[in-house]
Amino acid sequence: MIRFAKDDDHMQLKRLWNQVFGDSDTAVAFYFSHRHQNQNMLVYEAEGIIAGMMTMLPVQLAFSQEIRAGRYIYAVATAPAYRGQGISTKLLLYCHDWMKKNGETASILVPASGSLFAFYEKRGYQTVFYVDITTVQSALLPPFPVGSVCTPCRVQDFYRLRDFAFSGSSLFVKWDQAALEYIIQSAKSFGDGVYHVQTKTGEGYAVCGWRGQKVFIREIAAANMDIPDVLSVLHHTLRADEYMVRLPAGSIPDREPLPFGMIHYLGDAPLLNGSPPYLSLVLD
After folding, report:
1. How many CB atoms lie under 10 A from the CB of residue 124?
2. Which helix (H) or strand (E) holds 211?
3. In the prediction, which pLDDT does 254 show?
4. Domain ends where: 109, 139, 163?
5. Which secondary-structure segment (H or E) carries 186?
6. Are residues 74 and 169 in the same domain?
7. From residue 112, how far is each of 27, 120, 124, 137, 198 by CA, in Å?
8. Cα of 84 vs its chain's centroid, Å
9. Within this chain, do residues 98 and 153 fall inside the same structural domain, yes or no?
10. Domain shared by 74 and 148, yes or no
């Protein structure tokens, strides 16, 4: 039986999350206390046991000037003892049917591994989101812009700068301020950070996480300044050996973008006009 989650399910859901994804008890508890809502999670119950789960977080899909409702599919899991029975496919189909009935446009997801792109393609998804990834040595960054500052990013600035940077995309996956606040709080709780960079002429932000002596930046944007200058100001605070940066597709000339995310339209696909579709800031 497929249904939405209930409070009584949380112990089983957390156990399944640990079992499938290997996240710590602390990380799972943080998600359930700060981001989880029962109405956004489907469960597959078999004889009183939760055999599968799937989260469907609400997002806004901005097609140029038109905003439509969508869902980001996250934490799709099947208990090992129940695998091979098509449970994840049944959850996806149930989700798609529910979304159609509620007038929503499309679901998006980021496959956890390269092999899963083919799995989701067979279930109606197409790859439309690509990214560029580059590594920058700290020794090669431009000089620190005198008078610049780097501070923890407020959610209002986070939301405003994201919209400024990416709203010109042919398809922009927008998170609301509550979702962005969760990203800020999660980063702060686990030793990472979302930083607001300001110079005399512009500003930007970066969503950062430490990976050993490296910093992985899963989203970065700038207004009236260049990305290398954002990194230079950021480095003045973080002092990492190098920075691995995820950028919108097409940011690096003569480099083939990497497949990143997929979409499943629940009706006719809208025409996409503008720069490449943008999806980067996800729970990956």
Report:
1. 15
2. strand 203-211
3. 87
4. 109
5. helix 177-189
6. no
7. 18, 11, 17, 27, 34
8. 28
9. no
10. no
Q: Examine the domain organization and report whether 46 and 141 are in the same domain.
A: no
Question: 172 and 97, same structural domain?
Answer: no
Map tokens 């159609």 to a residue.
100
Q: What is the sign, positive or negative, of the torsion defined by CA atoms of 160, 59, 231, 168?
A: negative
Residue tagged 């969508």 (tokens)? 70
What is the CB neighbour count within 10 angstroms for residue 114? 9
Q: What are phi and psi of 268, to 5 degrees?
A: -65, 135
pLDDT value, residue 284: 56
Cα angle 95, 17, 96; round to 5 = 5
Q: Which domain holds residue 52?
A: 2-109
| Nearest alpha carbon to residue 207 among 122, 280, 118 | 280
**109, 75 in Cβ contact below 8 A?**
no
Decide if 234 is inside a domain: yes
β-pairing, 66-78 vs 106-109, is parallel
Report how far residue 81's alpha carbon sits from residue 266's, in angstroms, rounded to the nearest whole number.
32
Each residue's pLDDT tens digit, 32-90:
999 999 999 999 999 899 999 999 999 999 997 789 999 999 999 999 999 999 999 99
270 confidence band (pLDDT: 50, 70, 90): confident
Say whether pTM exceeds 0.90. Answer: yes
Is residue 45, in this structure, part of any structural domain at all? yes
* Residues 112-171 pLDDT 10s: 888 999 999 999 999 999 999 999 999 999 999 999 999 999 999 999 999 999 998 999
Residue 160 belongs to what H/E stretch? helix 155-166
We report the CATH number of the domain holding residue 212 as 3.40.630.30
Is residue 52 domain-resident?
yes
From the number of C-beta atoms within 10 Å of its C-beta (0-12, 13-18, 19+), residue 97 rates as exposed
Q: What domain count does the chain have?
A: 2
